[in-house]
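Lecture 7 notes: from sequence to structure.

We start with a single chain of 264 residues. Read the sequence below before looking at the structure.
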Amino acid sequence: MQTTQSDAGIEVTYERHGDGPPLILLHGGMAPTEYWQPVVPHLDGYAAIVPQRPGFGTCLDDRAETSADEVLAREVEYVRTLVDALEEEPILFGHSYGALTAIETATKAAVAAVVAYEPAILPDDYRADADLADRMQTLIDAGKRREAVKRYVEQVLHPDGIDDLDAWLAEWPVWPACTDLAEEVVRMNRAVERYRLPSSLAVAAPVLVLTGTDGPGFLRESARATHDALPHSRLVEFDGVSHSGPAEAPDVIAAEIDSFLRTR
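Now the structure, written as tokens:
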């Protein structure tokens, strides 16, 4: 692991794999940095940089001090610290909440390009009734932390239903340790529920927006809306791929990213 620190005292811990143009990988949701392990081997020719999101893993000390209104701004500043520490403008590749962070960072920092896989942005009609954060908080207050995380998994990872959630969780690498992050996930979800996609995003860099046909319908809708709000973007939809696309089909997605970066 490597670290860098901003003048404001923000410390970023990250892994670096390979050589080439820097490609920062931003994980989402409750996924750990290990989420990117299937992806990194397919990014030959790039220096894959994998930071640990603040509040998840190595930076747990500040999570109780950060409100829902501050979560996204905190993460953007965290990524900007890493961007500023690099010798050349990096490419940002974010998944879900990491994709939202990548796009927001690119409105404030100079980056070479952005790749956003199903950014965690809610369509207006869906957001109006979104109450996942409240439902999770109610369960946490009742001492039911595992049930709170299960609600997150059901709504975000399996919105179309799952036959045996407990069996799926038994195979999930971060279960049950991830229940320690329940409060942080509540704050993250509140930030998503409050975020409103502007009609135009001030991102000068080219952006590749990715989505899959087997992912949640509201995220596919948001991917298209994000594409429309960007001045320089390309939208690609992968047939038969879910919200876990980068880890599920890393070879296909990495090939699309490489083609985009070579022709931008």
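Residues 68-85 form the longest helix (18 residues). Keep this in mind for problem set 3.
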